[in-house]
Amino acid sequence: MEGTNMFQLKNLKKNKNETYEHVSWDSVYQEVKPRKKKKHLNIYLRSLLCALIIGGVGGGMVFGSFAAGKNVYGGTAAPTAIATTTSQTSQNEASNNEITSGTATLAEGMTVSQVADQCTSSVVAITNKSVSETMSMFGESAEIESAGSGVIIGKNDDELLIATNYHVVEGANTLTVCFNDSEEAVYEANIKGTDSANDLAVVAVSLSDIDDDVLKSISIATFADADSASVGDQVVAIGNALGYGQSVTSGYISALDKEVEIDANTTSTLLQTDAAINPGNSGGALFNMNGELIGINTAKFSDTTVEGMGFAIPISSAEPILEKLMTEETKSKLESGYGYLGIYGQDVDSQTAENYGLPVGIYISQVVNGSCAQAAGLQKGDIITAFNGQEISSMTELKNLLQYYKAGTQAEVTYARNSNGTYKEKTVTVTLDSEESANANDSSTDNGSRNDGNPSQDGSYGNNMDPFGDNDSQYGNGGSYGGNSLEDFFSFLW
């Protein structure tokens, strides 16, 4: 995960760019402080207002239908290990370790203290340990530890499912989740699904790994109605600020539908709040005063002259994406034996794509002879836009994704090909190459000129292909902009 990811607010009327940043916390800049160790776990929490109906669907996977005050799942009931909650009144009549089967009736007009007391148990701290791609002066890579937050949104037969930001889990070698702010409740997690374009991810913790008393003390967040948020509503933000552990801030919804341009690649529509959103709050929860989740905290304005401009992904946007990610196969990062695609490429960001009439993605500058990419029909000049349904815009993203897929695994590659000046998307299935076959194929490929230190095949680091070769006639007049050719464009990128 990179230490700082920048946002720019797109203001078409004023033609003004403002600077934003993600709010995960990276210890390469400041050491993550250890959490205070609690003397005991709070096994029986007070009544919570975050309710959820849980069920198992097909193969133990959860399909969420998020509605006002509830999450509805089809199928038979899942194991009742997690103490989800009802209203204050009904909770007094039921034991804390029961899951109620009805829709929760939530009290209105709670205080900040009540919301915090009843919803903190559905928010977790996430630690990402990754290896820096920048070598030290001694040629050594460094381990980076970053802190973020997450929200418990469901479970299936085997796993507890947690929503967070993509940038919180990006590039992770290992992920751990801490419940209840306790060092005694830290468990390994794996990525279930990611959506980098919308900065969302779902991670999974095996239920069999979690102690029974921890399971009884945590809860699943209740999703608010998609249209329930209004400007001026009071909200509560809960997250792992600065990696110190759970903290609570409060404020108001300042604006809805703010258009934010992320890393010059993606534009998102976010909810703005003046509740303090600090580094480490990324992936944490923004609750309304009914204790319902209305947003996933993701960014803040970073400037000495501005205060109180934090941003969250509204639940109306996150809901369908999280539903999809919750059903994906849980993936563990492989140390070796992962697959190769067999291409050399160059990143095409949104600004370049707009200027030159190209799709955002990875421009294929060379296809390795005998590779799975060649077998699938990929060609030089194609632009890869997605891998196995995950939108991608850089070789680094492709490299990270490939490290979750074994060689020999089948995967879908979506690409755009120029046809008479118009790019048309197609999807092909590839069987990923092994490292050995990729290297053997690469050695037989005429790779042209190379440049040490740049991204190379499938995003690994070493040498880079000359992107043009002698003939780019396949583009015709397409892909030109303002009299500049596609070759000029890639010369600029180089």
Write up this protein.
This protein is of the alpha+beta class and 494 residues long. It contains ten helices and 26 strands. The strands form five sheets. Strands 1, 2, 12, 13, 14, 15, 16, 17 and 18 form a nine-stranded mixed sheet that branches. A six-stranded antiparallel β-barrel has the order 6-7-8-11-10-9. A hairpin with a 3-residue loop joins strand 14 (247-262) and strand 15.
Strand content: 25-35%
Helix content, binned percent: 10-25%
Structural class: alpha+beta
Number of strands: 26
Report how far apart the termini are: 24 Å
Quote the average pLDDT.
73
* Shape assignment: globular
Record keyword descriptors for this entry.
494 residues, Pdz3 Domain, alpha+beta, six-stranded antiparallel β-barrel, disordered C terminus, 15% helix, Thrombin, subunit H
